[in-house]
Amino acid sequence: MEPQYKSGKSWFPGLKILDRYILGKFIGTYLFAIAMIIVVVVVFDYVEKIDDFTEMHAPLSAIIFDYYLKFVPFFVNQFSALFTFIAVIFFTSKLAYQTEIVAMLSGGMSFKRLMWPYFLGATFITALSLVLSLWLIPISQRDCVAFEQKYIRRRARDQYDRHIYRQIEPGTFAYIRGFSKNTSIASFVALERYEDNRIVSTMEASDVKFDRETKRWSSQRYVVREFDAEGNESFKQYRNLDTTLNLDVMELGRLNELLKTMNIVELNRFIEQQRNKGSDSIRQIEVEHHTRYAYPFGTFILTLIGVSLSSRKVRGGTGLHIGIGIALCFSYIMLTRVFEEFAKGGGLPTLLAVWIPNMIYLGIGIYLYRKAPK
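Given the sequence above, the corresponding structure tokens read:
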């Protein structure tokens, strides 16, 4: 069967008709798949949260513009590589089933040349994903988080941990219990200082108030305890605590939510700040930093796998290609999550752990490329 490609006006001027055909179908299928799944996800999410929206009297305008409109970029970026893969598999296997790829290769086109419009599309999607993950999503997530804390009961309760333990500088730790955002008061605060893996002193206070303007912590009375080398304890009571800590109140929130609202400049600054403090959360922050780059670049790898896998006409047609492709894609996503946990737990260097799935699947992609019909 001779492939039919329409000429005329195109979104991609300067490309050959075949390139425009493949690129248009690729991007069109990608956008259609995303649009369909977004509608499904929004409907299910709304049904799940409708009780909270009703009881908390959330305005319809806030639900649409402050929540769902800001939620869509996050969801698109989170599953962008999966939708890219599905689009490539679906469209390319259809071409293979109709023997159009055979006609292209028989006409003298190399397989490498055939992949050019696919990688042009992958470049567009990767660039979009990078812009979303590095800049736009953190901005949109600020409104999403604020909406959830105001109108979704469970999220409002979970904004702060009951017990917060942070390292504020090497050898010095802060323990904060029962911090309330509304009153800016913590029921208990303790500063612990360690030397040679033993505690040497603590400062403890109850009902400690944080001043958001001066960044100072104050309490009517506090206790200082000191421990000698033998472990003997001495303590003194004082009045009118008024001090600053190397700890901003924003750092008291759940770390995952805090990181989601930082653009790449703020995240880099935060990494440097926490590294200087010797924070025990530095690995989790570094994983967030590396995944913002590694996951978008996985689009190229999954495109290579998708085209190489689905370009051969096989018995079972499009369904077999899609089944194998989805299995590979979900295994890729699962592997990225596994290695992220390895990185957070200290089992592997964060940079290596985050990029290992890409390296593994790049090897799979190269193997499939070499086996693809030439």
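Strands lie at 163-169, 172-177, 185-195, 198-211, 216-227, 233-244. Try to locate this feature in the token string yourself.
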